[in-house]
Amino acid sequence: MIxxxxxxxxxxxxxxxxxxxxxxxxxxxRPNVVIRGAYLHKVEVWAIPRGRGITPDEYVVLGxxxxxxxxxxxEIWLFPxxxxxxxxxxxxxxxxxxxxxxxxxxxxxxxxPYNGASAVHKAxxxxx
Length: 128
What we know:
- Helix content is 20%, strand content 40%.
- It has one domain: Immunoglobulin-like, CATH 2.60.40.
- It contains 2 helices and 8 strands; from the N terminus they run αββββββββα.
- It is globular and about 40 Å long.
- A hairpin with a 5-residue loop joins strand 7 (92-100) and strand 8 (106-111).
- It has helices spanning 2-18, 117-125; strands at residues 22-29, 32-38, 42-49, 60-64, 66-67, 75-80, 92-100, 106-111.
- It is α+β, with helices and mostly antiparallel strands.
């Protein structure tokens, strides 16, 4: 009986440890920014605007990504790349994802590996 109770306790601990929210990666797979994670409640995509002395208060939320598969340990979230036309192009020096758990707590951020407005534009729009 004791072994059975210990087994159930360890199974419960293992199950809760594996369902912790996690932000794993962010990458570009045109036509989307793709974010991978686990047990996430919400994912926002943010831009860092051009300019000198920009503070986090000036970062701009572009919108929320949408989960494209079932919730769980291998979630894929998609955010459509904004239009690349010259007059509407996104002028940002960096792009990052911010992930939230079900309580609305930020559990992490991940940035695309491109710095500077030209590099971000080339990565998003394929003008390399």
